[in-house]
Amino acid sequence: MFYREAGQFKTSYEADQSLFPIRQDRIGIAVLLLIAFVLIPLTANDFFLTSIMIPFLVFSLAAIGLNVLTGFAGQLSLGSGAFMGVGAYAAYKLTSIFPDVNVIFLVLVSGFFSAAIGAVFGLPSLRIKGLYLAVTTLAAQFFLEWCFIRIPWLYNYNASGAIEIPKRDMFGITVSGAEATPLARYFVVLAITVVIALLVANVLRGRIGRSWMMIRDMDIAAELMGIRPLQTKLLAFGVSSYICGVAGAMMVFFWLNAAEPSSYSITLSFQILFMVILGGLGSLGGSFMGAAFIWILPVFLKFIPGTLGIDIPAETVEHLTFMIVGALIIFFLIVEPHGFARLWQIGKQKLRVWPFPY
Amino acid sequence: MNFKQFALGTAVAVALGSSGFVQQAAAEDSNYIPLLTYRTGPYAGSGIPIANGMSDYFAMLNERDGGIGGVKLNVEECETGYNAQKGVECYEATKGKGALVYNPYSTGITLQLIPKASVDKIPVLSMGYGLSAAADGNVFPWIFNAPDTYWDGASVVIKYIAHQEGGLDKLKGKKIGYLFLDAGYGREPIPLLEDLAKKYGFELLQYPVPGKEMQNQSSQWLNVRRDRPDYMVMWGWGAMNPTAVKEAVKTRFPMDRFIGVWWSAGDDDAAAGGAGAKGYKAMNFSGVGTEYPAIQDIVKYVIDAGKSETDKAMVGSTLYNRGVLNAMMVAEAIRTAQEKTGKKVLTGEDMRIGLESLDLTAERLKEIGLDGFAHPMKITCEDHAGSEPVFIQQWDGAKWNKITDWFEPMTDVVRPLLEAAAKDYAEKNAPWPARTEPCPN
User: What is the pTM of this model?
Assistant: First the structure.
């Protein structure tokens, strides 16, 4: 009843091929964008913006990046954290060398460095698959992390070994550095995330995306039908690393303000991978849901005891959060191994036939 | 699973979560001190005694004196797990409640907070850690790292080694190994050590220990065995310390030539080496033991009263007392700020004035029941570190004993380097805000 597209006729091919062919989806997306661009900026406090929304968007974008590679092109990767780091360090170097260039432009450019390195580490994917490929991307993770620690040029020879983001203005508004208001940073992160997500959504349903999915589903058949595995796989690695790189640069420029190499460690790679798996492999919406689950839920959980007036020591709350989130991950994967995206699909189907399920 | 139940459950969970989001308003008649602690994760071994020491001292002040200047202290812990992202999250969650000062207890988190401090007008007290260059109060008016920076510490170690050898000129040709946690924390002292190596002609051998491999240092110690350094200096934290002491015992390195920084001076760190660890040395600037009236008060008002989660055996250990020292500095800064501003309930800006005017004399230390617990310290507008003297303590197999008198750091070498580093930091982070805060002294 709620989700019935009966009566929505398409009179042109364009309408039939549009990104959101169902009216309810269009309304839903418009409402979400309205909330993100208007409601949240009007109502949210600084904590909500800086500790929940900005990280959530950054992680969503990183999860989209990994989803392109793992979910759509079928290449398992454990190096996404390091590729994010490449973006961050590239953007940092770029802004130190060209302090007057618009920082958003630099963040977007830094993704290309990440894409190039991602493509290089994607080369083994032509020969090896699955878990074996995961091991080579793991090598990328460790090698790049080593570079972040051992090449002092990357962090401008700072004694601390960390990169610290200077203040940068855009049209008279400070967007990076400690003085940037959470709102300005939120808008930048939101805009970049939404634009890249829309671009990726369009790439995925076109020729390139379809060739990725062909490679994922059966690479020999895809090759026989004229898909070139070399270009397709490397393109997937490149695009995925580009998105991860931009996410990584945003992470340090608009969220953390300073980053040590350990910020881009294997833990981050796993975090992103869990977001993708929980959200749903091969689903853009799932990337957002996965990121929300992994990042926002623990923050919410931490506040529950305080609100209910229960006095629990901080570390117990932390342990409890770990346990609850862990249990929920297992629970959701048992209930729906294909992730939240699949749950949402089932939900849509239920809504469509409600109240007369068959 | 029934879909309806599932949807309902999710909705309830989300509603519960979001309702928790309303921030509790800060109580009007108290001074709010957030404590970024870590009782979980790989650094919990060092984090727990410090967290206990700090919260117990504040709890004691509340119980015994009813707070400071008649105003209760509202202390809240936030668990960071030594993770910089969580540290920033804790900072954002607590700064709106009228936080007076932050004690991040992590160089990584400190680095994140340094640029924020001047914007949010909340000072950061990184007691004996963090960015050494922050000692320059003209560049970093909001950051305090009294009583000593890492560079002070590194200079004291070299001075102590020279003392053992019979003079600074005897350092020539000696090999000094530097075992450090490969993170901002462990890398901080390297520029100074390299500088001193050049100056005094000793060879500095570096043995970095990656954070995720700090419990497996066999390769580093194999290199130590090969290089045979005359002395080993360690900048370790968390699980790295006991592992290093164990490995040193295993490699039969002479323990009295193995010297740790004040953060490697924990009781558990040394005890891990068993009987072989006897002779291990470490720098320290806070007293050990429980024979101080203030610590006795903690036992009486807080621990025996069952108002703390501290194990009584932990009281008096090096890191516990370090936490007490940190809490005492915060408390004294609050008292100073109350005197200076005439206000009872303070803000971050008042607290900055209090910290900048902090003058802990020997008489004052005696008055608060911590006579001889720490060296008298004085913070000025220019010097936020104080570069106070440090002593060396030695592990006798069961407890730490102070074996030297107070050692002055080589301020003449350290200070110019600190100022150069502060300038460098400001340039790299240009445009760095110039100091506008007037000097309260």
Answer: 0.86
